[in-house]
Design goal:
alpha/beta; Uracil-DNA Glycosylase, subunit E; 6-stranded mixed sheet; binds uracil
Length: 232
């Protein structure tokens, strides 16, 4: 699926949901097969081996300086053919220690959000924009995001979720490619890059720990995501 189909657009319009699609450039670079950092082509491998090779590649990654301070990389976790994909910012201290995404306090709240949607954590896929923890949980830097983003693209291409939920300002701005504030990004349906996969934005669970009254807004966002998925 390259973009939203006419039927998906119709369903979203009937639901009074505004559709924002990524602008497509008139010039497209030819698609090059994914290469591991040692130059090996991942294109000829069966999908699962390719997935394992990608995970291994991330464990070895030295593309940016975060490799110096990380305890370990955090690739992602969950069902590799999930309908739902949640994308956060970057591992925190607990995630860096365990090598798994969203396992700290914010992670418990994310689990509650997934449960409220009627699913278990192992039925969805959870990943981050960055695979390594920025020291002292500082904001990720643009260069770090650029060096890491092909990993997330390959994860999305493999999982092929039916909906992506960006968690928090940083993930939202990175995935939508904008600097608009998160409050202005909510309540719209985007598409992830040129994949055609719908994407919605909501607040980060860590923000909700500090602002519990906004849980209502997050629930609205998750309901929007559910409607989009069901209309697909
Ligand atoms: N915050 C994130 O954005 N990701 C995690 O994995 C944990 C906390």
């Amino acid at each position: 699926m390259d973009r939203l189909s006419p039927r998906q657009k119709h369903c979203l319009t009937v639901m009074d949901i505004q559709i924002w699609e990524a602008r497509t450039s008139t010039h497209r670079e030819p698609r090059t097969p994914a290469l591991s950092d040692n130059g090996q082509s991942l294109a000829s491998m069966p999908a699962h081996e390719e997935w394992l090779a990608l995970q291994h590649q991330v464990t070895q990654c030295v593309r940016c300086e975060l490799h110096v301070t990380r305890t370990q990389t955090v690739f992602g976790m969950g069902n590799e053919s999930a309908d739902w994909m949640f994308v956060g910012e970057a591992p925190g201290a607990e995630e860096d220690r365990q090598g798994l995404p969203f396992v700290g306090r914010a992670g418990q709240l994310l689990t509650a959000m997934i449960t409220a949607l009627g699913m278990r954590r192992d039925q969805v896929y959870i990943a981050n924009v960055l695979k390594c923890r920025p020291p002292n949980n500082r904001d990720p830097m643009g260069a770090e995001v650029r060096k890491c983003e092909s990993y997330l693209h390959q994860q999305v291409a493999h999982v092929q979720p039916k909906i992506i939920v960006a968690l928090g300002r940083f993930a939202a701005q990175s995935l939508v490619k904008t600097t608009r504030p998160i409050g202005k990004l909510r309540n719209h349906v985007y598409t992830f890059e040129d994949s055609g996969i719908p994407l919605v934005v909501t607040y980060h669970p860590a923000y909700l720990l500090r602002n519990p009254l906004d849980k209502r807004k997050v629930w609205q966002d998750l309901c929007l995501a559910k409607r989009v998925l069901e209309a697909a």
